[in-house]
Design brief:
By secondary structure, the chain is mostly beta strands. The protein is built from no helices and five strands. It has a five-stranded mixed beta sheet with strand order 2-1-5-4-3, with no helix packed on it. The termini are far apart.
Length: about 60
């Protein structure tokens, strides 16, 4: 990881702890990321909403409502 890398973290749900490293600050990020489970059972959908974090980039937090 270089000092210019932009980190995107995921908080909560099945993606909790995942970190994506981008080479620079992206021009635009999606306001919401949808994650769908299709593993041998019913389809389970989780939504993650974008929040900015000055320290490292941004994070997607699990929507709880």
């Amino acid at each position: 990881m270089s000092p210019q890398d932009y980190l995107v973290r995921y908080v909560g749900g099945p993606l909790d702890g995942r970190v994506d490293t981008l080479p620079s600050s992206p021009e635009s990020l999606k306001e919401t990321v949808t994650h769908v489970h299709l593993h041998g059972g019913p389809k389970i959908v989780h939504h993650y909403d974008l929040h900015y974090a000055v320290e490292y980039g941004c994070e997607y937090r699990l929507r709880t409502d």
